[in-house]
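User: Before I run my own analysis I want an independent prediction to cross-check against. Here's the chain; please return only the structure tokens and, at the end, one sentence I can use as a sanity check.
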Amino acid sequence: MTHPDSNRSHPCTKIIKNGIFTENPIFVQVLGMCPVLAITTSTLNGISMGAATTAVLTFSNIFISILRKAVPTAVRIPIFVVIIAGFVTIVEFLLRAYVPGVYSALGIYIPLIVVNCIILGRAENFASKHNPLRAAADGVGMGLGFAMALIIVGAFREILGSGTFLSGTPFMLTLPPGIPRTILIVLPPGGFLTLGFVMAIRKHILDKKKTVKVAENNEFTHCLSKCSSCK
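Assistant: Structure tokens:
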């Protein structure tokens, strides 16, 4: 016989899914807007910033969780910022040494990861209150959710604005000339327009799923109430 808990997801899996979908930091919580609007002029920039932020978020969460009982409450925020800044510096040095092209493309937005409200918010609200394993899962989930949003917005802006996909990589695709595009999409106003458009699509899909689910539940309830007449 199957154990009743065998189909339940592992707590860490739920935490990761929560960060990616349920409480996505961009599409749901609308946090960390500066890099989303500024550097998503290409898909590659979105991937790079998403990976850097995920790494900082995950390792800072783990480190803060390990030290959570040793950090005095009165100075926890400055200590959290110092820990986050340390990991941002490591990421910055690694990018500068091994992928200078990515480092140049992201520019000032790499050190600005330190003040990203998503990272400090997760440190304060989650990592400082949970064990390292859960803190790591939260960092991975929120980081991947952030990265997913950057990649989606970056892909939209690059395709519609430049007519390319993954520009600057061996996998670059160039769209046929007949497909309409506008330079406005890769300019600052285009960031707001694209983000709003993507969020509207997401909401439409979720609302449609909820409507279908409610209809199915109502149909099931109606069937149960009329069970005797179906015989």
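Sanity check: The longest strand covers residues 164-165.
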